[in-house]
Amino acid sequence: MSLVLSGQGEKTSPLLRVARKYSAYLSYPLAICGLLWLLALPLSSFSRRAYFSENAMMPGQVYTTFGTQSHMDAMDRVDAELKTKDRAQAVEAVFASIGLDTETQEFTYTKVPRIGKHAGTNVHGILRAPRSDSVEALVIAASWTTANNASNVNAVRLMAGLAQYASEQVYWARDIVFVVTDSGEQGIEEWLRAYQGLTTTSPLFVRSGIIQAALSLELPPAKRYTGLGLYFEGKGGQLANLDYVNMVQYVSRLERMPAYLHGLKDVPRRAHWWTKYTSATQLLLRQVRAQAFGLSTGIHAPFLRYRIDAITLAGLPQPDDPVSAVFAHGLFTDADVPAAPMQRQIGRTIEASFRSLNNLLEHFHQSFFFYMLPANQRYVSIGDYIPAAGLMIASLLLQAMHLWWMQGPDELRSDSPHTRITRINAYYALLRATLPSSVGIIWRVHALGLVLLLIPQLIASSVLTDATTTAYLFTMALASISMVLHTSDIYWTRRIEWRQLKSIVSVYLAVVVACLSVMNFSLAVALFVVAGLPLVFTRVCRVDTRIRRALGVLMLVAVSPVCMMTLGMHVLGCSSNPFRVFLADFYRFGSLVYPLVCLVYWPVNLLCMIIVLIQ
C-alpha cells in the first residue's frame, strides 16, 4: 500500500522517496549498463584461471595403455560385422564377443500425437566392474551420424576398441555402459527414459546402477584430426560440472590431442588484446546460442536433463584432409579410417578421462554448475556475470514504479496535506476505471499467444513443413496486428492509462527474466534483448504524429518473433525453420524456448504495439 500511495504524496520510507525521485532518470542508464556489463565479460580481467575443486579425480596421474593390437582388432571387427549384418546386430555381436552384457532396444516416439513421430534402435553393452556391485556406472555414447549428418562410424569403431581395453582391466570401481544409437538425441532420450524406468513401451532389462557421468563421441570422416571440440550445454540451459570440463581439457593436452571449447583454438598469449577480446566474444556467443536455444552439438544434452554430467568430444579434421573434403557418407573402407596414431591419441584421452572419473568418491558437486567460459582453461563465475541480469531487471522495475506513480492527472500527485483524502479517493476511482481495461488487454493478447502454443499440436507432422510453418507464422502475425489495430481503435475514444498498462507489463517481464536468469542466463539475456529493450524504450505517441506512430510499429515488427525467427535461420544456423526446432525441443526435451516465445515474447511485442498506437 505504501508503494501504491507514494505517488499521491503519502509518507513513505526514505528508500521509496529516493526511488520516486530518481526512477525517471535511472531506467535507461541501467539497461545500457547491463548490456555494457555483458560486453565486458570477454575481457581477461573478468575471468579466472580454471582449477580443480575435486582433488579425488587425480587427472593425469596414470599411465595410459590404449592402442595395443587387441584393441585394434576389436575395431576391425566392427568393419567385418557391418559387411554381413545390419548396424544394430553388428554392434551387438561385437559387444557380445568382448564379453559385455548386451541388449537391443527398439522404440517408437509417440508421446505427442501427430508430432515428432520417430522410430529407431539402440544397442548397449555393460562391462561389469570387478570391484563393485553395479551400484554406479559411467556411459560412453555414440550415434551413427554426427551433428552435421556425416558418418560417425569412426566413433563406433573407437568405442569397440575402448570396450576391449576396459574388459582387460581389473581396477574399475564402476560399471561402464557403451551405447550406440541410430536416432541421435532422440535415441539417447528414449534410452535414458527406459534406463530410469520412466517408460513401459520399450523397457530395458539389462541395466546397471546410477549413472555418474557420460561422454559422447563424434569423429567425422577424416584421416587426421587437429584436436577435439568440447561441447557441454544442455537443451534447457543445463551445464556439465566445471570440474568435468577442466579435467577433460587437462588430460587431452597431456595426450597431445587438445580439447578446445566449441572447437575454437587458443590465441597466442602475446596476441593483441583486441584479438583476445574478439576470440573470447566469439566463444561466448557460441555458448549463448547453444545454452539459450538448445542448439547443442552431440548427443550429451539428454543426459543433463537427468542430472548426469555429460559432454561431447568431436574430432576436428585438418583443413586439407582428403577424406573430410569429400565428406564421406555410409560405410568406411580401410583407407578411410583415421591413422593409427590418431586413434591411439583420442582413445588414450578418453581412457585418462574415465580413469579420473573412476576415482570419484561421489557425484560431481564441488565445482560450478553455473559459469561461462570465455577461453580455454578460463571461466567466469556466476557472481561475475549475474549483475548484468540484475541491472536489466532493475531497469524494468524502476520504470514500472515510475510509470505507476505518474499515472493519472497531475492533481493526483500534489503534496498538499489538505487534499489528501480527496486525492486518495480520486486515485482509487482512477484504478477502478482503468485497471479492468489494462488487465483485459493483457489477457486478450496472452490468449492469442496460447492459441499460437496449442494449434501446432493439432497439425500432423507431415503437414508442418518449413513452408507451412512460415505461412502459419505470418498468418498469426497478420492476425496479431489486426487484433492490435482493433484493440487500439476500441480504446481510442475510451479512457485508458498507457502508463498503467506498461507498468504491469514491465513488472511481469521483470519477474520472468529474474526467474530465468538463475536457470538459463543466456536465455534470460536473449529475452531481455528482444522483448525487454523494446519495452523500455516504448512510449505513447501524440495524436498528430502519425508518422512517428507508424515508425514505432514498424520498429516493433522488426523485432517481432516472425522477423527474429526468419533472421535466426541464418544467425542460429538452423537447417529448418527455428519455430519447428523449438517446437520439437519443447515436446521431446522440455525446452522452454517455445512456450516463452508464445506466452511472453509474442504478447509483450504486441502490447508494445498497443502502447504506441493508443491515445
Helix content: 40-55%
Shape: elongated
List low-pLDDT spans. 328-335
Q: Tell me the number of strands.
A: 11
Distance between the termini: 29 Å
Output the structural class.
Answer: alpha/beta
Description:
The strands form 2 sheets. Strands 2-3-5-4-6-9-7-8 form an 8-stranded mixed sheet, with helices on both faces. A 3-stranded antiparallel sheet has the order 1-11-10. Helix content is 53%, strand content 12%. It contains 20 helices and 11 strands. The radius of gyration is 28 Å and the shape is elongated. The relative contact order is 0.13.
Give me some keywords for this one.
11 strands; elongated; about 10% strand; single chain; alpha/beta; 8-stranded mixed beta sheet; 3-stranded antiparallel beta sheet; about 625 residues
Task: Provide a brief overview of the structure.
This protein has 615 residues and is an alpha/beta fold.
Write the layout of secondary structure elements.
Blueprint: H1 2-5, H2 14-40, E1 48-49, H3 69-82, H4 87-98, E2 101-109, E3 118-127, E4 136-143, H5 153-167, E5 175-181, H6 184-195, E6 210-218, E7 225-231, H7 242-254, E8 259-261, H8 273-293, H9 301-305, E9 309-317, H10 322-326, H11 340-358, E10 371-375, E11 378-381, H12 382-406, H13 420-454, H14 466-490, H15 498-517, H16 521-537, H17 546-558, H18 561-571, H19 578-589, H20 593-613
Parallel strand pairs: 4-5, 4-6, 6-9, 7-8
Antiparallel strand pairs: 1-11, 2-3, 3-5, 7-9, 10-11
